[in-house]
Design brief:
Keywords: Disulfide bond, Signal. This is ShKT domain-containing protein. Strand 2 and strand 3 form a beta hairpin. The two termini are 33 Å apart. This protein is an alpha+beta fold. 20% of the residues lie in helices and 12% in strands. The chain contains four helices and six strands; from the N terminus they run αβββββαβαα.
């Protein structure tokens, strides 16, 4: 039963495009009917279940050293005369808005440095390589499910609050 749950879990996650599976041995060729029992369909063929593993893309950026630091302050919205950064802080790590937020809201988003330092990467969810976006917000309900907790800690630490 446990083997079925694990296989079913992998099947659900793969069906949603959140992960890619790999094989630690040479995969067997697929048959016209798919993969035989005891094997899992991976990119290169059918892999024995005991040799199947989850391929996680590297999303950890290399720390950088900053040698100069401009004044650290958020920009002002000319229409209101105040900064909108606190209200928009949730966009700080969104890949679509990150560049703009670094420019407009460096203080709120903690992109400022006070001198030469090495900064650790911020906590973030992994990106689905098929869609270019994270599936984590849609899967948040799985964060505390004992069956998925380990996977969610790895794939969705920000959404699940594991940072």
């Amino acid at each position: 039963m446990l083997k079925f749950i694990c296989s079913f879990t992998i099947l659900i996650v793969v069906a949603h495009g959140a992960i890619e599976l790999g094989c630690s041995t040479s995969p067997l060729p697929r048959t016209p009917d798919g993969c035989p029992p005891g094997t899992t369909n991976v990119t290169d063929g059918c892999c024995p279940d005991s040799d199947t593993y989850i391929v996680t893309p590297s999303t950890t950026p290399t720390p950088t050293t900053v040698t100069t630091a401009p004044p650290c302050q958020d920009k002002i919205n000319p229409a209101t005369g105040t900064s909108d950064c606190q209200k928009r802080a949730y966009l700080c790590t969104d890949p679509t808005y990150k560049k703009m937020m670094k420019d407009q809201c460096p203080k709120t988003c903690e992109y400022c440095t006070t001198g030469p330092t090495t900064t650790a990467p911020k906590c973030s969810d992994k990106i689905n390589p098929n869609t270019g976006t994270s599936d984590c917000p849609k899967k948040k309900y799985l964060c505390t499910d004992p069956t998925y907790k380990g996977l969610m800690k790895d794939q969705c630490p920000k959404t699940c609050g594991y940072c």
